[in-house]
Specification:
The complex is a heterodimer of chains A (121) and B (227). With 121 residues, chain A is mainly alpha-helical. Helix content of chain A is 61%, strand content 0%. Chain A is built from 4 helices and no strands. By secondary structure, chain B is mainly α. Helices cover 73% and strands 0% of the residues of chain B. The chains are: A mainly alpha (121), B mainly alpha (227). Chain A binds chain B through residues 1-7, 10, 13-31, 33-34, 37-38, 40-41, 44-45, 48, and chain B through 24-28, 53, 56, 60-62, 64-65, 68-69, 72, 74, 77-78, 81-82, 85-86, 89-90, 154-155, 157-158, 160-161, 164, 180-181, 208, 211-212, 215-222, 224-225, 227.
Chain lengths: 121, 227
């Protein structure tokens, strides 16, 4: 390749670069778009819009289903028979407690702190 | 050479004379004509497809021109241009005010061009790796044949600029082209990039210096002689 550009004179090089950029601008003018530019653009917009709409529909369906499941679980939780605690049962039927079918609560004595807290019985 | 901030700033301020003038030495400088009616933008924001179509019609010319010069491949311009307007359609609702429409559209144009260049670089790496040496020679001959026609010198200029700009990063290449070829002012670039004007000057200066260093060996002298 020929090399007839000055390498020492910076301002001359600057001008050459400006000329090159101007030539580049001239070599690529604003192109005229093809006849199917707008129809293809609208098709792409429509495809993207329908994809977004589908995703939104799926998301809404998912949220609705999740809300329904939550309601169902809440209903089931509210309607199920509650398990009574042993205290309630003991109060309700003291005979059962006397017969030993309901275990008595275990007492836990915590030793005084001066024992070092190791005396758990 | 080590980077000396003081020296660099001095050199930058020398170049800044024409940077401030708003007109690039390449002389494009038609950025100011790119005005879209604010009412049209508001209507398009409100979902009026006819107004959006009018916006596309009025901006299509310069958007496609900018893309063509940024990516350097006229055959792919329509595809990238459609990508820009598709993104515009989707994001128009987020536009704060019609005053920032132009930098907004420029940003979309620049981003779509970046995406294209990245995709093309990946494709080219694969393609070159797949070609045998004979295929490369045949491709070179076909290319040489093509250059015999009248558009040969323009093609050479295009390739020369692309080769020169290949030595700098994609970001700097696009920034330099927007400034030098598209004729955007620093203020406009600031609005597009949301970057401080001084930082832009430094970046532009460094990019230009790198291109300048590569220019003498590029063959531009021979190409210019033929023109």
């Amino acid at each position: 390749m020929a090399n007839d550009l000055p390498t020492d004179n910076n301002s001359e090089l600057e001008r050459e670069l400006d000329r090159l950029f101007a030539a580049y601008r001239e070599a690529i003018p604003d192109p005229v778009s093809g006849p199917d530019f707008m129809p293809t653009l609208w098709k792409r917009i429509q495809a993207r819009t329908s994809l977004a709409a589908n995703l939104r529909r799926w998301a809404e369906g998912f949220v609705t289903a999740a809300a329904a499941v939550c309601l169902l679980l809440a209903f089931l939780a509210a309607s199920s028979v509650p398990q009574s605690f042993w205290v309630e049962r003991a109060v309700a039927s003291p005979d059962e407690l006397a017969s030993g079918s309901i275990p008595e609560p275990r007492t836990l004595e915590i030793a005084a702190m001066d024992n070092g807290g190791t005396n758990l019985r | 050479m080590p980077f000396v901030p003081g020296t660099c700033n001095l050199l930058v301020s020398r170049r800044a004379n024409w940077y401030r003038a708003g007109e690039s030495p390449a002389g494009a400088g038609h950025a100011g004509e790119r005005v879209v009616d604010h009412e049209l933008i508001e209507r398009a924001k409100g979902g009026d497809d006819a107004a959006f179509g009018q916006i596309v019609s009025s901006c299509k010319g310069w958007v496609l021109g900018t893309i063509a010069r940024l990516i350097g491949r006229p055959e792919d311009v329509d595809d990238v241009g459609q990508q820009v307007f598709l993104r515009l359609y989707q994001s128009l609702g987020q536009l704060r005010s019609p005053e920032v429409f132009k930098p907004w559209l420029y940003r979309l144009t620049v981003n779509a061009s970046y995406d294209y260049l990245r995709r093309r670089r990946r494709r080219m790496e694969t393609r070159v790796a797949d070609l045998s040496e004979q295929q490369m020679i045949a491709a070179d001959m076909a290319e040489a044949e093509r250059r015999r026609d009248d558009a040969a010198s323009k093609a050479q200029v295009r390739e020369l600029v692309q080769t020169l700009l290949a030595g700098i990063s994609e970001e700097d290449r696009i920034l330099l082209l927007l400034k030098e070829v598209e004729g955007l002012s620093l203020r406009e670039l600031e609005a597009i990039y949301h970057v401080n004007e001084n930082a832009l000057k430094v970046r532009l200066f460094r990019a230009r210096q790198r291109v300048l260093r590569a220019l003498p060996a590029s063959g531009w002298g021979a190409v210019r002689g033929k023109r």
